[in-house]
Design goal:
759 residues; alpha+beta; Outer membrane lipoprotein wza fold like; 5-stranded mixed sheet; 18 helices
Length: 759
């Protein structure tokens, strides 16, 4: 097998939905060299079918308010469920009073603790003694006594001895009241690192709950307790979760630090075990340990038929082998499947989500997807979109298929391949634990409902009625006009109709805007190369073409091919996306910095985001020139801004070139020659992802990311050469798609600013 085929196989295997490749762990993949990682990514890129004129994530092809941004956390999940990370969700984190609870004698005294000393006999007195900031208590007649850092028993012994030396014939009773909270620090791979005040009897697990628990890249099995800048203890949470052993879940002390490093290896075990999941494994652990984590075999398990997938680092391949000895090491293992006592030729399909009996189903019993669905019992399943993920082992090709339980025509006659996975979301969350390919499809097929100033985004596939979503969401339709506006941008369709009668087949980027009662007015602004700039008041169903009838003639320098339309709801969504992305990057950078890792590339992307002018966000891409389909069909929103730029007569080159520059437009200039005029590529330029932001905002990305030498350019176009991000940190690697979105938004804003400056 030549090198290209090897890495193509890895890339497809990573995308595979079968039990062996589903749990490919980025921590394991990170053991490849940067060059190998890039080859894997390039092999994966070659599997995509990308249209010539398409959107790059983070840039608007059409109304970005139509897109549902998947979260960083969702995008980076390893398929399947990682064991133990939800342990902290139900743990209390309130700083409740301790009261008069009996104290263990080994409790260590902290600042601001309060002692109560009662004397009786020859002297009757009660003393309330607070531990001061210098670690002492002031006892009348005895002076200052140092107690901080001593145990409760040591302090009792010390006080008793001093009192007996000063008073004869007294009985002594010593207790602690109003115990002070402890200040601790929690850092590393937790959801919210920081400094916390916790109860004095808080254990390691209780303390971690204050930080929201361990993130899914963090280790549950190597929780380090640092005291006085020295690691004194390493806690394995599996001791508690799996074995019920609390002995190592010790109390923490004031000033302690809990450090959670990234986990080194995860292995998924599926099939005939009692608790299939993805488990963290330590160096030296075996398949036997993994089976113990999964609570052992089911009665139906065929212990002689256990298959495992390994990453072969020498050959850069994923290999599957049959495990005969459970004492074998798990080193480089990715996943394990324990088969039942069934005919080995019979393949299974895994059903996940809102069904009565999730798990594996024998494919030999079902003709196709419809036959299987007809035999399932659903529990509050979301009906308007579900996902089938398959991997054709003969063609080495992954596929994601959307269908709708509400529309049986969408899943009729679909053949199921061995080891397919089917995901049914529940009504409440509408979330899918799917791969990135499926997530992208779900995002594309999201229906946006604009209702009383709020945008509601729902995944939708197949035939649907608008009224069904009104009932599902419980929308208040008072003070809403019966006439609503349906927009299908990709088909240039705009329909004004009674929302009760609206029934459609889902397309990409559909929107339905419920309007206020008839005769409502909106205000839009017009600026730039136009005879009468300024605000305009129109009916709420007015289109851009209607606006053009009011604004008078365009100036002679007007560049109608680059008319800019910005919308506030889109701008706000982009701002939220930027903020969330920066927060995710900050968390990842914090974890990496604590480990001393080099993260310069990510810092560069983060710094790029700081250059984004919020006023240059919110653009809807499209040809809005007079009489164009988009200007005729696009309904204006209150607060929309129209900018008519002057002819820029220039081409811009941004990104990883030696001299980012704007130069005079020539119709004979190609993309490759423009990059040469900007000094050529820098060292870390991502040549495979070069794209052009046209003057109308539409993004052009050539198939397989290779531009022909004669690709045409127009005035106002911007060529973008993105940066190639390569790290050795799996936690950072998982954020690479996020950094690409952030940089794309930044370049889009820069392109818009360049064009706007010509008004």
């Amino acid at each position: 097998m030549n090198m290209f085929k090897k890495f193509t196989f890895i890339a497809f295997s990573i995308l595979s939905i079968n039990a062996f490749s589903q749990a490919v762990d980025p921590l394991v993949i990170s053991q490849l060299s940067p060059e190998q990682i890039e080859m894997v990514r390039d092999a994966y890129d070659g599997t995509k079918s990308i249209e010539e004129d398409t959107a790059i994530e983070g840039l608007p092809l059409l109304d970005e308010s139509l897109e549902s941004k998947e979260s960083v956390e969702d995008a980076n999940k390893i398929p399947g469920k990682k064991y133990g990370y939800d342990f902290f969700l139900s743990m209390p984190t309130s700083l409740s009073a301790v009261g008069d609870l009996p104290l263990p004698n080994d409790y260590k005294i902290s600042l601001r603790d309060q002692f109560t000393v009662i004397l009786s006999g020859s002297k009757d007195a009660i003393f309330n003694l607070n531990v001061k900031l210098d670690g002492t208590i002031l006892f009348p007649e005895l002076g200052s006594i140092s107690v901080a850092g001593l145990t409760f028993q040591e302090v009792k012994d010390k006080l008793t001895k001093l009192i007996e030396q000063s008073y004869i014939g007294v009985a002594i009773d010593i207790s602690l009241q109003n115990l002070s909270a402890k200040k601790i620090t929690i850092v590393g791979a937790v959801k919210t690192p920081g400094t916390y005040l916790v109860n004095p009897f808080t254990t390691i697990t209780g303390a971690l709950a204050y930080s929201g628990g361990i993130s899914e890249i963090g280790s549950l099995r190597d929780i380090k307790l640092i005291r006085n800048n020295t690691e004194i203890f390493s806690f394995d949470l599996y001791d508690l979760l799996i074995r019920g052993d609390r002995s190592n879940d010790i109390n923490i002390e004031a000033g302690d630090t809990l450090l959670i490093n990234a986990a080194n290896q995860f292995v998924e075990i599926a099939g005939a075990v009692k608790r299939p999941a993805i488990y963290e494994v330590l160096e030296g652990e075996t398949f036997s340990n993994l089976v113990d984590f999964a609570l052992g075999f089911k009665k139906t398990a065929n212990k002689s038929n256990i298959s495992a997938a390994f990453l072969n680092l020498d050959e850069a391949e994923i290999t599957k082998i049959n495990i005969k000895d459970l004492d074998e090491s798990l080193a480089n293992a990715l996943s394990v499947e324990v088969f039942n006592y069934v005919n080995e030729k019979i393949a299974n399909v895994q059903v996940l989500g809102a069904v009565d009996q999730p798990g594996f189903y024998d494919l030999s019993k079902y003709r196709d997807l419809k036959d299987l669905i007809d035999n399932l019992v659903f529990i509050d399943a979301y009906p308007w979109l579900a996902v089938l993920e398959q991997f054709d082992e003969n063609k080495l090709k992954s596929s994601s298929i959307l269908f709708s339980l509400d529309d049986p025509t969408t899943y009729k006659s679909i053949k199921l391949l061995p080891n397919s996975r089917i995901y049914f979301a529940d009504l409440e969350t509408r979330s899918f634990d799917v791969n990135s390919m499926s997530s992208s499809l779900i995002r594309d097929y999201s229906l946006t409902l604009n209702h009383k100033g709020e945008s509601l985004i729902l995944p939708v596939y197949g035939r649907y009625s608008v009224s069904s979503f009104i009932d599902y969401l419980g929308l208040d339709m008072s003070d809403v006009s019966e006439i609503a506006t349906y927009v299908s941008p990709l088909e240039s369709i705009v329909i004004n109709d009674d929302y009760k009668k609206m029934e459609y087949i889902a397309q990409k980027y559909n929107t339905v805007s419920f309007r206020s009662p008839e005769n409502s007015l909106i205000t839009v602004s017009v600026s730039g190369a136009v005879e009468f700039p300024g605000p305009y008041t129109l009916n709420d169903d007015a289109t851009i073409e209607d606006l053009y009838q009011l604004i008078g003639d365009f100036q002679s320098q007007a560049y109608l091919e680059g008319i800019i339309l910005t919308r506030e709801v889109i701008r706000q969504r982009q701002l939220k996306s930027i903020q969330k992305t920066k927060e995710d990057l900050n968390k990842a950078l914090l974890v990496s910095s604590q480990k001393g890792e080099i993260i310069g590339d990510i810092n560069i992307i983060k710094a790029l985001s700081e250059t984004i002018n919020p006023e240059n966000l919110g653009r809807l891409a499209g040809d809005f020139s007079p009489k164009s389909t988009a200007s005729i069909n696009t309904v204006l929103f209150d607060g929309d801004k129209i900018i008519i730029p002057k002819n820029p007569n220039a081409i811009n080159v941004l990104g990883e070139v030696l001299n980012p520059v704007a130069f005079e437009y020539s119709k004979n200039t190609s993309i490759n020659s423009a990059i040469d005029m900007a000094g050529g590529y820098q060292q870390y330029a991502d040549k495979r992802r070069v794209y052009v932001i046209k003057a109308n905002g539409i993004v052009v990305k050539s198939r397989r990311n290779i531009f022909a030498g004669n690709t045409s350019l127009n005035p106002g176009d911007t060529i973008v050469v993105p940066r190639k991000i390569i790290t050795d940190n799996p936690g950072i690697d998982a954020l690479i798609p996020v950094t690409q979105i952030l940089s794309n938004i930044a370049f889009s804003a820069a392109a818009l600013e360049n064009l706007s400056n010509n008004n």
